[in-house]
Design brief:
The chain is an alpha+beta fold and 186 residues long. The chain has 2 domains: 2-73, no CATH class; 78-185. 54% of the residues lie in helices and 14% in strands. It has 7 helices and 6 strands. The strands form 3 sheets. It has a two-stranded antiparallel sheet with strand order 1-2. A two-stranded parallel sheet has the order 3-6. The chain has a two-stranded antiparallel sheet with strand order 4-5.
């Protein structure tokens, strides 16, 4: 869980035995707070085909406590072209995940993938804030060396000029670069 206090980002982590114990804890804490039914979902980004846990719980002295939850496994979405063609922003992020894995260790391929996704963002009929938010996620996922990042900014700048739609201003770019650098240092 991330939250901001006095301009700085603080990370607050539950002390979890497993990621699924956190899912359990967040679920019941949200229920306690809002007194409404809560649905939890596990999104798995690993490469193990047959690993799909759907339950977390424990038993002690005949008392059982736990949670059953649906699972979405990114590995199940293999058709990259279908993901890229889908109008759903989650499909685009899933495609970015697939491309991140495929281009590991190949900066030129990673750059090409990142540029392809950036162009797709501009081709969709999405509002400015959605494009900026999704680009921030893609930028974080598909990191490239500084020289390729500068090239990407130049390409995006040219794309924006051609389309007359500066969604990501130079000030936002500088801020994003600073945030990325700080994230790498922490």
């Amino acid at each position: 869980m991330l939250y901001r206090r006095s301009g700085s980002t603080k990370e607050r982590q539950l002390s979890c035995l497993t990621p699924f114990s956190c899912l359990f804890t967040y679920n019941y804490r949200l229920y306690d707070k809002y007194r409404r039914p809560i649905a939890s979902l596990a999104l798995l980004a690993d490469e193990r085909e047959n690993w799909k846990p759907t339950r977390y719980g424990y038993e002690l002295f005949g008392c059982r406590m736990g949670i059953d939850f649906p699972v979405v496994k990114l590995l199940d979405y293999q058709d990259l072209e279908a993901l890229l063609a889908a109008p759903n922003p989650f499909a685009l992020v899933t495609a970015a995940h697939r491309l991140t894995r495929q281009t590991k260790g190949d900066n030129s391929q990673r750059y090409a993938a990142k540029w392809r996704l950036a162009k797709l963002l501009y081709q969709r009929d999405w509002d400015k804030q959605r494009i900026i938010d999704l680009f921030s996620v893609l930028d974080w996922m598909l990191q490239v060396p500084p020289d390729l990042q500068r090239q990407l900014w130049q390409d995006i700048d040219q794309l924006e000029r051609n389309r007359q739609m500066p969604y990501i201003t130079s000030v936002e770019r500088i801020g994003m670069e600073r945030d990325l650098q700080q994230g790498r240092l922490e």
